[in-house]
TrEMBL record:
<keyword id="KW-0046">Antibiotic resistance</keyword>
<comment type="function">
    <text>Acyltransferase required for the direct transfer of medium- to long-chain fatty acyl moieties from a carrier protein (MbtL) on to the epsilon-amino group of lysine residue in the mycobactin core.</text>
</comment>
<protein>
    <recommendedName>
        <fullName>Lysine N-acyltransferase MbtK</fullName>
    </recommendedName>
</protein>
<dbReference type="GO" id="GO:0016746">
    <property type="term" value="F:acyltransferase activity"/>
</dbReference>
<dbReference type="InterPro" id="IPR019432">
    <property type="entry name" value="Acyltransferase_MbtK/IucB-like"/>
</dbReference>
<dbReference type="Pfam" id="PF13523">
    <property type="entry name" value="Acetyltransf_8"/>
</dbReference>
<feature type="domain" description="N-acetyltransferase">
    <location>
        <begin position="5"/>
        <end position="167"/>
    </location>
</feature>
<keyword id="KW-0012">Acyltransferase</keyword>
<dbReference type="InterPro" id="IPR016181">
    <property type="entry name" value="Acyl_CoA_acyltransferase"/>
</dbReference>
<comment type="pathway">
    <text>Siderophore biosynthesis.</text>
</comment>
<dbReference type="InterPro" id="IPR000182">
    <property type="entry name" value="GNAT_dom"/>
</dbReference>
<keyword id="KW-0808">Transferase</keyword>
């Protein structure tokens, strides 16, 4: 892919864009955040104040097109679904702009975010738990190097717990 990938942290000023994306037909069945604007604003304020994760917007060639959540497993609802370690991280993502769907961008973006998360020296595992119905994203996670482990019950969905180990990721993509 001959495009520049970049990420920047979300600010509250991004609420209208994120609200629009959360109401897209390809997003809301998996994110369940198609709330009225004032409720979504409250949700975003809480999310921005939560110290266990960081929210990002993803860009291709300077155009904003995706949303990301990088989080610490410790302190998250997912923590007790497997034997987690102190520095395990997780990732959530969505492509918000319809014009970017179906063009193969999820994979290089995910690979870039995982590489970014592995910059924390003590992180040896990144996890994901995509909605078990989201076959397209499960395929992208597998392509990136995630291994499916088991279905897990979460408050808002049944997810597929997947692991990406640092050694395997680096061997696959950067050696």
């Amino acid at each position: 892919m001959k495009k520049t990938i970049a990420f920047r942290q979300v600010t509250y000023e991004d609420h209208e864009l994120l609200h629009k994306w959360m109401n897209e037909e390809h997003v809301h069945p998996f994110w369940n955040l198609n709330l009225p604007l004032h409720k979504f604003q409250e949700h975003l304020k809480e999310a921005l104040a939560d110290q266990h994760h960081t929210l990002y917007l993803g860009y291709l060639d300077g155009q904003v097109m995706s949303y990301w959540e990088a989080y610490w497993v410790k302190g998250d609802v997912i923590e007790h679904t497997y034997s987690s370690s102190a520095y395990d991280q997780g990732v959530h993502l969505l492509l918000g702009e319809k014009a970017f769907l179906g063009k193969g961008y999820s994979f290089p973006l995910l690979r870039a975010m995982i590489r970014f998360q592995f910059q924390i020296a003590n992180t040896t595992k990144i996890i994901a738990e995509p909605d078990i119905r989201n076959e397209k994203m499960i395929h992208v996670f597998k392509k990136c190097g995630f291994v499916p482990l088991k279905p897990i019950s979460l408050p808002e969905k049944t997810g597929l717990l997947m692991f990406c180990e640092r050694n395997e990721f680096e061997k696959r993509w950067f050696r």
